[in-house]
Amino acid sequence: MSDATAGPRKRPGSPRKGAGKGAGKGAGKGVSGRRLGRRENLAGYLFLSPWLAGLVLLTAGPALASLYLSFTDYNLFDSPQWIGLDNFSDMFADPRWRKSVEVTLQYVAIGTPLKLLAALGAALLLSSRRRGQAFYRAAFYAPSLVGASVSIAIVWRAIFSDDAIVDRTQRLFGVDIGGWVGNPDTSIYVLVALTMWQFGAPMVIFLAGLHQIPRELYEAAEVDGAGPWRRFVSVTLPMLSPVVFFNLLLETIHSFQVFASALVVSNGRWGPADSLLVYTGYLYEQGFVNLRMGYASAMAWTLLLSVGLVTAVLFWSQKKWVHYEGSER
């Protein structure tokens, strides 16, 4: 076909009909889409602003301020004076600081396992369906709601004082050691008994975990001739190990923060013989009684790093004894 009959050719660089109009619409949509995205982001940040303000003003800001104060001599009234690592060196050389560490570790090592054992035992008793189950669950959970109050700690101190109900009861069995509160060898067990009594929160978590264990596993174990103890060891504990780890982690961190119960039970004296001088109690005494806020800040950061180390060890150890569904262990 000749060039005359083929009609006029379009130049290679010439735009097609309507191309400019379509491009303009696409560009307009892109700009409006970006504007809409910015508006949505702005709305999201506005909704987050109360949380961000709380994070900066109530958490991150005070934490950074206390980190700075831990390297200073500060008494709440005068300007902080930079002293470097003197607070930390004084802290490690302080015999009362070492005593507070000993008391706190004893409380954590004894109170946390016993509390979890009490919670697991109650959860096993309440896991089966029976009449009045809701009432018993509520009754066992109630101490967790009121156990941390000052009034309960006062009652606890009265129960374990000299010539009180515990002292009189143990005399019936020939044990005459006096009240637990006044004996430096037994006063820490008053706090342990109080924390064991507050087993309701981990009990509820254990109950939720027990209800997630498939009944088919117990039926298969019964067919194989496994008794109650063997079913508990071979089925319940492995399937419940993630919940045990979760409760162990929470209760360990919570135990390191014990303060109010020790303060009330000891009547503010952390005694006798500093037997109830928990770490947070000594921190409070140094910061707000002796006005050594720099020293108290150093203690606070030492506690934070120690709890972080304990948490890291627990996470490392769970690889050996926690069994997750679908894992090869």
Automatic annotation (TrEMBL):
Pfam families: BPD_transp_1
GO cellular component: plasma membrane
Region (Disordered): 1-33
One GO-annotated biological process of the protein: transmembrane transport
Compartments where located: Cell membrane
Sequence intervals crossing the membrane: 42-69, 105-126, 138-159, 188-210, 231-250, 293-316
CDD domains listed in its UniProt record: TM_PBP2
Family listed: Belongs to the binding-protein-dependent transport system permease family.
Membrane topology: Multi-pass membrane protein
Bias-annotated ranges (Gly residues): 20-31
UniProt keyword terms in alphabetical order: Cell membrane, Membrane, Transmembrane, Transmembrane helix, Transport
Major site of localization recorded for this protein: membrane
UniProt organism field: Streptomyces boncukensis
Name assigned to this protein: Sugar ABC transporter permease
Superkingdom as given in the UniProt entry: Bacteria
Residue ranges of every copy of the ABC transmembrane type-1 domain listed in the record: 101-314
Keyword Glycoprotein appears in the UniProt entry: no
This protein's record includes keyword Flavoprotein: no
